[in-house]
Amino acid sequence: MNRYLKLLCLPPLLAALAACTTPAQSPEETLPGQPAPVEASDNAPLVVPDLNALRDTPARKLAGRFQRANWAEMPGWSNDDLSNFWPLFVRNCRGLMRQTSGNLAAPARATPRAWQPVCAAAAKLEGTPMDAAAVRQFLQMHLQPWQLNGADNRQAANTVTGYYEPLVRGSRRQGGVYQWPLYGVPEDLLTIDLGSVYPELAGKRVRGKLVGKRVVPYDTRASIEASGKRPPVIAWVDDPVDNFFLQVQGSGRVLLTDGPDAGTTMRVAYADHNGQPYVSIGRWLIDKGELRANEASMQNIRAWAQRNPARVREMLNANPAVVFFREEVVTDPELGPKGAYGIPLVAKRSIAVDASFVPLGTPVYLSTTWPSSDRPLQGLVFAQDTGAAIKGAARADLYWGFGDEAGAQAGRMKQRGQMWVLWPKQAGEPTAR
Predict the structure, then answer these.
(1) Which region holds residue 363: left if phi is over 0, alpha if psi is between -120 and 50, else beta?
(2) 138: how many CB neighbours lie within 10 A of its CB?
(3) Is this prediction's pTM over 0.70?
């Protein structure tokens, strides 16, 4: 999804709504000269290249430690309802079979050659009814669970947060209540891959712009607003707080309410950011004495903005970071935006991970609890997204889906969790490219 991911540094509700977040990495890149991968229809056949046709790239070291485990060791495994899981597994195989680029600035991906036999076996089952029992049998026949451990070689436990896709009201034209822009990528934005020049900085990127012969940091939110040359605007939103928190999530849907497109919904997906550090507007309001720490909810921030319309820009400009978007068509309302892996996210089946521990595309068994409770929340998910605030072994951000209910669950999510990585039996320990 390439969004801001939550780094929870305040109480849970404040953290979820006014979180100390940092931008995610860019999506997996294609090989030079190749077109970007096209997302195939769920009804299209799964095409798996021959093993010798999958060009390998140098291995990337994973920070995680893995311990071979049994299926019975994963709590709740036999209770996970896999009746609708098979199409998700096939779609993930399409991603696994993409050629790796070898670009060290992109997040680490599960090794395609390791997965080729498993995905080939899945392709042979095309047309075969796959109920929950058949899916479970296939997974247990072809995959091996590996417990994810920390540096102390004990099972890692870490924070599991949540994110979602919000809906806002907007227009393609500025006017009336539609005064709050969602920007596209500026023409003068530079993204510099430091690892291409200094190998020891692999994975590090900086954003900036060219002024004369010097590359300088890109403009802050306030500088962009004051500039006579703004980035292109994709849509104008009717509420500044909705606009802001859509940027926090990094992707969302816009219900267009006027003009020739009135009544239609478009998706705005993360495209890039200005490289400036994120500052929580909730923390800014607390520091200014405008709200108490236990009051910094989205509702109270919105109410403050309505009471103080002359200070709304001051509040927003306290955060110098800006997310830039691209427009996408919503082809299937049940699917979320594409994550950093380039695969559409699915509610409660997709997570963001630290790809240096769990490479993208990897099936993961996640054991955690429901938001603000001790009720078990356990099941198979796919590592399909990343974020700079999602760091460490077993750290995860669970995608809850679209709309207000998903937002309510995501906003309360700050639980502890553990992971088991599922990997092809014949391939040994998990590896990355």
Answers:
(1) beta
(2) 19
(3) yes
pLDDT digits (tens, 9 = 90+) for 6-18: 433 333 334 333 3
DSSP state for residue 342 in the 8-state scheme: S
Assign domain 1-29+39-184+234-280+319-433 one CATH number from 3.90.1150.10, 2.120.10.30, 2.40.40.10, 1.10.510.10.
2.40.40.10
Question: For residues 344 and 338, is the Cβ–Cβ distance under 8 A?
Answer: yes
Retrieve residue 36's tokens: 């970007």
C-alpha–C-alpha distance, residues 109 and 433, integer Å: 5
What is the residue type of 376? P
Q: In this predicted structure, which of 40-44, 143-147, 161-165, 412-416 has the lowest mean pLDDT?
A: 40-44
Distance (Å, whole) CA 155 – CA 285? 39
Res. 422 pLDDT band, cuts 50 70 90: very high
CA 294/CA 12 separation, integer angstroms: 10
d(C-alpha 404, C-alpha 198), whole Å: 44
Q: Which residues contact 27 (CB under 8 A, 6 or more apart)?
A: 2, 106, 338, 340, 341, 342
pLDDT tens profile 115-141: 999 999 999 998 899 999 999 999 999
Provide the 3-class DSSP secondary structure of residue 221. helix
Share of the chain above pLDDT 70, in %: 89
Quick check: 89 pLDDT over 70?
Answer: yes
Give the percent of the chain with pLDDT over 90.
75
- Cα 424 from Cα 433, distance rounded (Å): 15
Q: Please state the φ and ψ torsions of residue 303, each to the nearest 5 degrees.
A: -65, -40
Question: H helices of 250-351, where?
Answer: 281-287, 298-307, 312-317
* Cβ neighbours around 406 below 10 Å, total: 20
Per the CB < 8 A criterion, the answer to whether 311 and 341 are in contact is no
- Token pair, residue 412, equals 């309360």
